[in-house]
Automatic annotation (TrEMBL), chain A:
Rhodanese domain mapped to chain residues: 19-63
Superkingdom assignment: Bacteria
The keyword Oxidoreductase is annotated on this UniProt entry: yes
Main location (coarse class): cytoplasm
Family affiliation: Belongs to the SoxB family.
Pfam families according to UniProt: DAO (PF01266)
Keywords carried by this UniProt record: Cytoplasm, FAD, Flavoprotein, FMN, Nucleotide-binding, Oxidoreductase
Protein name: Sarcosine oxidase subunit beta
Catalytic activity from the UniProt record: sarcosine + O2 + H2O = formaldehyde + glycine + H2O2; sarcosine + (6S)-5,6,7,8-tetrahydrofolate + O2 = (6R)-5,10-methylene-5,6,7,8-tetrahydrofolate + glycine + H2O2
Top enzyme class: oxidoreductase
Amino acid sequence: MTHPDRLWRNPCLKWSYDVVIVGGGGHGLATAYYLAREHGITNVAVLEKGWLAGGNMARNTTIIRSNYLMDESAAIYEHAMKLWEGLSDELDYDILFSQRGVLNLAHTLGDVREGVRRVNANRLNGVDAEWLTPDQVKEFCPIVDISPDVRYPVLGATLQPRGGIAKHDHVAWAYARAADRLGVDLVQGCEVTGFVRSGGRVVGVDTNRGPIRAGAVALASAGHSSVLASLAGLRLPIQSHPLQAMVSELLEPVHPCVVMSNHVHVYVSQAHKGELVLGAGIDPFNSYAQRGSVHVVEHQLAAALELFPVFGHAHVLRTWAGIVDTSPDASPIVGPTPVPGLYVNCGWGTGGFKATPASGWVYAHTIAHGEPHALNRPFGLDRFTTGALVDEHGAAAVAH
Amino acid sequence: MRLPSGGRIDRTTPLTFTVDGVTHTGYRGDTLASAMLANNVLAGPSIHLGRPRGIVAAGVEEPNALVQVGPEPMLPATTVELTDGIEATTLSGRGRLATPNDGYFDKTYAHCDVLVVGGGRAGLAAAVEAGRSGARVFLADEQPELGGSLLSTPDTWEWLDTVVAELASFPETRVLTRATVFGYYDHNYLSIAQRRPGGGRLWHVRAGRVVLATGAHERPLVFAGNDRPGVMLAGAVRTYLNRYAVRPGRRAVVCTNNDSAYATALDLLESGAEVLVADVRDEESALAALVRSAGGEVRAGTTVTGTTGSPWVTSVSLGSETADCDLVAVSGGWNPVVHLHSQAGGTLRYDDATAAFVPDVARQAHVSVGSANGELDPVHPLWTIPAADGSWDTHFVDQQRDATVADVLRATGAGMRSAEHVKRYTTIGTAHDQGKTAGVNTLGVIAEALGAGTPGPTTYRPPYTPVPFALLAGRDRGALLDPARVTPIHAWHVARGAEFENVGQWRRPWYYPLPGETMTEAVLRECRAAREGVGVQDASTLGKIELVGPDAGEFLNRMYTNAFAKLPVGTARYGMMCTADGMVFDDGVVLRLAEDRYLATTTTGNAAAVLDHFEEWLQTEWPDLRVHCTSVTEQWATIAVVGPLSGRVVGALAADLPPKFMAFVDTTVHGVPARVARISFSGELAYEVNVAGWHGLAVWEAVMAAGEEFGITPYGTETMHVLRAEKGYPIVGQDTDGTVTPLDLGMDWIVSKRKSFVGKRSLRRPDTARPDRKQLVGLLPVDPDDLLPEGAQLVAPDTPLDPPVPMLGHVTSSYRSAALGRTFALALLRSGRDRLGQVVHAPLADRTIAAIVTEPVFYDPEGTRRDG
């Protein structure tokens, strides 16, 4: 009997698929969905060593925005934004996408320069963007302290009105359900332990449940990409770091939008249920363990109270960490690899959740055609050889 | 009701408090919950269903009785010590934030040999044993007094007093009460939240060994209507009876699957209540006889299957029978508090006898003892108790989330197998109590629904119980959030009325407005002074790194794009550094102080990053190089005296002057040992006077006095920026952004072709050698009064403005120039050097500015003014 709320089957593993996706997170599930939906490739397995969408998809702070500086970044994240805007309808599942606006605060003259530059670039790239004065910041988010007395006063902010948050689990389940219904096998508890090679080509994977043949193998295993790729003899230019986040108790509505501050180093929104969701910078050391250091949490909350005095009586209910794969230019790597039959999608750093629909969309295109779509062509592995980096972090200027 | 005698409350100190505006009384020693219970006060209605709810537990695991106390948004009443005048508001799952937190929160860092977590029976025994050995022992307990569950068993209080007294006699033992160990991090590093009057203290403790004596939390039973007020945990009932002398009911049904609840039954009988024990186990407990002999009734093989009453419970169904009651004390067994063990990386195993997850393997130096280690009564697990009508929608698993067995079944029916999925689907375990009473029961329900074994629990994460933001933030707020760095001359700038800008951690004078002057006017005046007379800037914030050792020159050769090994002693050279990808990283002037000694200056904001960069390469790539790097930024005060008259000012104070541009002398200035260098960031004749920080203010004042007759004018960072931009000198981080090579800046001359340096290989990559890269150029707005906004994007003049618009680059710096009598700008422009003389457009939100592309040097391109 089919349960009325059935999300996915728990299918038997077949011995061969056209495409095996390694990693059942948001990007892997979205890739499977678009492979089936856009390219008619349905003989697909998503192999997940734990539970579906239990990695970074379950651990992010659910912020969605597309106001990136570089043309290449703006194009792919804006593609994601457009997909987000139709996703609840397309997948027939309410992902609770709330376009409440994302503020990026500026606290130094350098921040202001960078913010104005980004607003101008965003507009010319077709991404909605506004520059707000401190008073306009206060109007948009009344709980931000804009007084000149704070350590790093708010000098202005960029606003992307279409930015916001969504419910991460719903996004994962919506993609999973849609992929499942199109025939994709979502296999949990299945860990890839190696790659099956024939000649130089990857033709399958070894798993804890035996070998599986595959026409193409696509990695979508953020937080563990470099480990998996090394099993195929591929050394990725990736460093993995813990990135922590936390929630407060449930609160009456107090925070109307999303506020991010690179300089004071905190980002915060209030989830639909009512908890404050906060994140900050990465733990500086490399690690695959999904836990971080308490001092990072302490800095983060000091920053939060500096910008939002009203949070002073809130409590931290839970902290956790995901593992972000960061590339040398802080941009993702999506495309074919020097190993025939093997594709890689990694290096999204802290931007993975917001990219989910576009990441899956371009990755599916890449796998289906054996070459990248125009949107992810700039994000190939070869750029580290040619030097054609997409350096978003470059915009974070130093102070003189 | 309050019993006439007994308990650990101080009946001589009655306290008045209000809940939802109604006044009640309690006693010192009460919790808010025990005082509420004594006054028959309900908790707030449930979050979604609005069902009436009562107090269930006596500790941190309480799911229902959340209150707002003053500005504190959400506290379990079971953890609030009653004080006089408390004004509490019951909550329905959500708190309210309204005011800042002005409490006093601080932090302490400490080490100990043994940290004992939990001051109950097992923890006290461990702490005393460790204390007797002479070890430095910390004992932390979340309650106001030691004893844990012993506080609920009066016959142990004599032993408790003895042990507490012995602990107090150990000089190396420290007892922390009201102190919750909430986080167990790597390398035996634990965090403790201690409640203190008007605030709290965060303890960071590095412990040699850790004893986890954290006790156990009782599990509810899952039957229809198990959330009705009056249904409580049996252990909690015993606590209220014995510790607070509060009897939550007169006619009690005790429903249990283990022996532990018999103690509650006996204590209830002792207090004069009527008791019926419904024991789900078919085989009668050996303790049944005790209950009967005390006047109670015991039924084996019997369980509560439903409740009635509004709002308080008035009867229960026992299968086909009904029993009147006003209290239902339930025990579904106990869960060891394994949170810290798990946070530490320890593994768990499922123990069939107690139907609980118990510590298995420890990964750090810790051991679990007592009930935290699973030393508990065996139970007959009974995860769900069907209702007569077959419904599951009032079988509450997580009362705070209003989540029932029906919700769990919906999740498993949707295809979910993992406890993590069910948690997320049902929200069980995500509330304030983080599933302390709900977690294992949910696993049992999942196992029953799937006909499989009990799945593993969800991950235990810090904090064990909620921790105030303000406690974690501590005193790192306001000015101490990131302590501001100021120069030795700072007070003078403040007195002079300077406006400041934050540059990295530094507060730097931005400009010095005269009364009534705008920023634009002030900056034009300051610029004019530096170009025509003499200006002075406090340049002390520039990073300074001293490099010492026989290989210092070779090391600098490898770090900078240009060469330093052959730089003569007594001279200086401007240098540029790249990251490994060939992009400009930092720049500054390097002085050779001696054969084996250099002083490198860095940009203000990048000083620490440059030192880290040096150390990383030295330590990881070239450990063989004999070089030591030391930051000396704060040892020196640096005064830049700039302008055609600067020589007369410095000459009046200095015993000696450097012989030529980019040379320096060690001499005296104003009688103070000083290093004077001929360095210019403005194109004008200029001297940098460096003295020990201690003398900085005195020498600055001497410079001001000596310059008075020449109208010496102090200037800030804005004027510095204008002056250097007129000369086309880029500022790293403003005119570069991490995607710019030295060649893009037109500085081919600084990139050595002979030696190797960090980033050199990258500069040969196809993309970095592309001819159409963005290059630094100058811009002159067609209207000489139009000021281009910094950050404006540039497009070709005939470009349609339909997104996506192809962009050519952006404006990096833009100013009004006193010397040029007009506006000007610097920009990074695609193929910029091929566009000299062409017009580009900067489309803004409301208009477009046209500008002509020029060389980036606007002023004195021949460099004639450098030598005065």
